[in-house]
Amino acid sequence: MNRKVLKRIxxxxxxxxxxxxxxxxxxxxxxxxxxxxxxxxxxPLFQGARTEMVTQFPLPSSTPAVPLxxxxxxxxxxxxxxxxxxxxVRFYSPHEGPVATELRLQPPVPSARVRSVERFAGLSxxxxxxxxxxxxxxxxxxxxxxxxxxxxxxxxxxxLASFPPPLSGTVKxxxxxxxxxxxxxxxxxxxxxxxxxxxxxxxxxxxxxxxAESHEFALSGQPDEEIAALALSGGGNTLYAGTDQGTLxxxxxxxxxxAELRDRLPAFPDRRAITVLALVFGDVSLAVGDAKGGVSxxxxxRVNAEEEGKxxxxxxxxxSHKSAVKSIYPSLRDKSxxxxxxxxxxxxxxxxxxxxxxxxxxxxxxxxxxxxPDGRGLFAVDASGMAHLWxxxxxxxxVSLKTLFGKVWYEGYDxxxxxxxxxxxxxxxxxxxxxxxxxxxxxxxxxxxMLFAVPLAILGAIYTSQFGNPRxxxxxKPAVEVMAAIPSVIIGFLAALxxxxxxxxxxPALFVSLAFVPLFLLLAIVAxxxxxxxxxxxxxxxxxxxxxxxxxLVAAVFCAIQLGPVAESMFFGGNFQLWLFGETGTRYDxxxxxxxxxxxxxxxxxxxxxxxxxxxxxxxxxxKAASLAxxxxxxxxxxxxxxxxxxxxxxxxxxxxxxxxxxxxxIVLMATGNTAIxxxxxxxxxxxxxxxxxxxIPEAPVDGSLYRVLFLSAVILFVMTFVxxxxxxLVRQRLRNKYGRF
Amino acid sequence: MKxxxxxxxxxxxxxxxxxxxxxxMAAVLIVVVVVNGLGVFWPSRVVTATLQDGGAVMGEVVxxxxxxxxxxxxxxxxxxxxDLYGLDxxxxxxxxxxxxxYADDTxxxxxxxxxxxxxxLVSLSSEALAVAAPGNPFSQLRQAHRHxxxxxxxxxxxxxxxxxxxxxxxxTQRREKSLLYxxxxxxxxxxxxxxxxxxxxxxxxxxxxxxxxxxxxxxHAYSATFADVSGRERTMPLIELVRFYQPNSMSVFSKIQYxxxxxxxxxxxxxxxxxxxxGLFPAIFGTVMLIFVMSLFSFPLGVLAAIYLREYAREGLVxxxxxxxVNNLAGIPSIVYGIFGLAxxxxxxxxxxxxxxxPDQLPTPTYxxxxxxxASLTLSLLTVPVVIVxxxxxxxxxxxxxREGSLAxxxxxxxxxTRILLxxxxxxxxxxxxxxxxxxxxxxxxxxxxxxxxxxxxxPLDGTFPFLHLDRKFMHLGFHIYDIGFQxxxxxxxxxxxxxxxxxxxxIVLVMSSVAIYLRNKxxxxxxxGTF
Lengths: 742, 532
What we know:
Chain A is an alpha+beta fold. Helices cover about 40% and strands about 25% of the residues of chain A.
């Protein structure tokens, strides 16, 4: 042969070997990469928060130095600002050099100085002046764009309301709120310990006439202890107070002109002093800081079912500080809290997940701190007059292993619960992302489906491989394999829109048929003993039993359907669903677990059947022959010889069918009703992991917590099926080695 | 008898019963789909029921069931005329009906909007009468309608021109945008030129729109007045009518003709009334194209991987593990593949393509959103294991003697592979491919998050440059079933369409997998002397 040709052929062979090897390996590795990619998306859920120092600059102090009383930060983290005792608001722009814009607040009386400033809801500040009057100031940032598209910010301070000083007494602490409908509430704590409430309500009657009324009254019912902290909800409806003896008080101020003491309870068994109170975003939970450094959140809970009304109860305990808590600021974006102790250490915690996200400790203790309204910037001033500006990366504070898998006590609930409710209409909603009810749903649906599918598939496989006529087997097996190809969307559609309405009307018929099918079978077998004596029927017997039984089964189901209404009126008082609800309290859902058992079972039967049949028919015929030769009957042979040999294959098939049932999406999506409840009843639905992903992922913002939690549930599904399939595959490989085929 | 029990014969019967139940269930499924699906297009007779209270109802009898707490039966009628009654269906107690009749002149109109109309023809407008030869009113209506339909082609032509002009306008706008993005100012000559072009196109499109309005106005003059069962009259332009027939006086032959016409519309027509009526063409096209693009990826990759595993890789722990991994992948839930496709293809690769090649379009995504390419790639990942397993099985089924013979004759490994092994294994590989295609045709969950939509405005393949639009969203038969069965506003009215779609999908999938299984069994027989 020509040398050249030979060379070329050899070269081609080498190239082919190289290409195929590299290509094959690459394909296999890239396919295996899937898990890692999904897991990578889910992974950031468990990363903690971190801060990035944006800048650090000494505050240009005024001369003489005036003490600062509050700090704040805008959303772009560009203009931190401070309030000082003289009523001057100083805006810094650290990115463009420490130029400060100064705005002076108009004092209510000349020469009054600022006593304290309380920050709430965004950039609103309640300023208490030392003459006892109070003003409500709001800092406005207006953005504009110049012709180069560069953003410029302009600052303004707008006064929303002002309150004159009380007629008598010196003010110690005062809070003010303006609700959305214009209701103004001021609560003042006087030095003698009395609490004064002033309300100003403007209301509009049907004809559009405005009427205004003002109320002023003192609160009663507080214990003879010194009140150390106050908190007022955003609308001014609820007032909380904490004393130095650790007593928590709650008044309802929603009725203008009247107050009702709702709670008065010792917060801690050791009666430690309460130092700070603050309301968590959403105004449902109350954060309590105490003298021992503890931070806990509380909300009203119905203690027992008989009693009217709700009482405060400690719900979450967050990480403790080493010394007394000085201030608590809620985030305005989620349920996070920034707390600072007297030593100047700052903590960032999330209420629902009880995760401790951050601790910040600087060389000199921090005095003032503030989160930007979007929660992504943190500004603090320390004792040496140094200002710190951090960027906070805190993407998924609400997710922890505990919120994903454990019971969590959510706001407004009377007890901890497993709950999946990923979104709601309002921003201050607490996302409830427990995967437990979804995993439960998956297991429940799969369990009932397997209960239905496994016996049918395995018994059917035994019959087909061992007893069936070989010619029929050639038809039955491909038929079942074709059954496996029926798209799940079709099974789901028929289950939900054809089978579910049928079943809804005739549940008792299903129960009757459960009794009738075995009964009819028994009768048929007995009857056959007499019929089969006729020579004509003798041929039919062996290998065709299942054909003979088909009409019997049809007849049984038909009779059951006919007798269903009779049974319903006899046992269930004429209406099964009413009876069920009355007797057991279970509501009958149209799309329930019976439907799922049938539909999902139908989808996995072919898989189990095919593998079990393969395993059984690959048992060496010599075993069967030996058993039969020893005089065993055909059933004895199958039961004692064939089944034990084929059992690993049957097991593998069951595992793979199990895996398929776990991951099946369309059927459960269409036929379960998708309610995330945890109830073993077969008469209601569930929400499995797979359909949850399909339902929620189109609405999940990319890289948000929900998005990543859905990826985590995909990882869980992956791991579940991976384990099942690997077990099955290992068993199969052992079997293959044993019999040398499969 | 006792002997019979002792031998365990009842258990044999029990296993037989299990098989029986399984097969019966499958049969019931097929029968339900076929019966409900085939009957949809058959024109059923329209009944006029006179009620005891003097009222009358006209419609097709959908089903009857026994009344729950009283005697007798009640009928569900499809009464149509959604624009008049608001509801498509009505239950009527049989006891309330005094007379049932099937009037010959009952007319069923299939309309572009509001579903069917059941009633009688009252009169034709003068324009419509002018184009029809004198005769009975029904045949006049037919002639006038035919005339209108011919005229309508002109309207469609104008529409097509309009579409071309607007796509050109969109292109100039895109170029303007990209010029701006590149930092050109608004006084740049190139930019001004584009502006001019845009203005000219705008002018052209306005002229076309004017023409469209004129034509449509002319066509709307051809109208006819119909009355429902209670005599309420309604005048409708003929252009709004898709077709009409008198079911009670149709012969079997014309019914068959009607059936065929509807079948043709189903396969080649486009959907109407939020997919509950009309045809399935975009969905069929989308499904076929999806499968095609998917095969382009999964087939070569799967075969290559299988050849590597079976012919080139050395048997050992690694190969065993890889084989386990591949079998494992076949069992991973499809929704997991879907979510992977979303993160990796759509947001990962698609997002990068957008940033690199279409930055001027951002934040509107071009490839960074679901589309047929990403859905196909996701499905090809899903089906690669099927192809690998089938190909490996086919290669493994070839006796080693064949390989050794070839090598002994001096052929290289590659020659053996391409000349001997692959041809021999081709039926097996085909089987794998067909099974993969059948799986892809029926898979819906991963598509739902990678680009399938309820109504796609345009096909992924059309006459505008660059002809193949892999970034477009598409329609799919399986998703169609889910969508109209579960998310349409009028599920009851959509049911016939769901059954038809189901029947079509079942047929496609069953035929494909039957062929695959037949091929495989044939091949198994061929090599039964070998070991595998």
